[in-house]
Amino acid sequence: MLTNKIYVVFLVFTVCEANFGHGEQSVSFSWDNCGTGEQALIKELTLSPTPLIIPGNVTIDFVGESAIDAVSPLKTQLTMKRKLGFFWIDIPCVDDLGSCNYDDGCTLLEKYFPVKDPCPPVFLDNNIPCHCPFPKGEYKIPSYTVDIPSDPLPSWLSDGQYKIRIEISPNYACVDLSLTLGSSNPSVNLIV
């Protein structure tokens, strides 16, 4: 009798997951400023296509504003979660990817954009610095397309739904992102 109840619960869970768990992927991208009193806010942000297909091209439209100069140190906390079934699982920090804490976001930027090198064209073309300090003002990136190869991404970062929170303190910025990743390479897919 108990075994039958377990089977029924399992069947209901499986049907709900098949009908609802993956159905939520239609909400492929959303964002929201979080917290109160932040000095920097995102005004507009779109990513396309949705879901984001990796590898592939992603087009970004962005408008943000900072009420103050952003100077080092910018303590940054990144929280990433992936949906597995009905649950959101924290993604640990591995090689500076996942749920990581950084003592200074400015130092992290220098790792990817060394001060001795010129900023990438998307920054230069839109008069946006790629190193600290970031002067107060409005920043815009209109319809910029970037190619995302599969090589630099770990295999576990594939098809699925993700929630990301980026907090930069003290009270500088906070943003919540929800997105769905897809893959153009079926062998990369993970079962969710």
From TrEMBL:
One of its GO terms (biological process) is ganglioside catabolic process. Residues 31-179 form the MD-2-related lipid-recognition domain. GO terms for molecular function: enzyme activator activity; lipid transporter activity. One of its GO terms (cellular component) is cytoplasmic side of plasma membrane. The keyword Thylakoid does not apply. Gene3D superfamilies: Ganglioside GM2 activator. It holds the Pfam family E1_DerP2_DerF2. Residues 1-18 form the signal peptide. Keywords: Signal. This is MD-2-related lipid-recognition domain-containing protein. It comes from Strigamia maritima (European centipede).
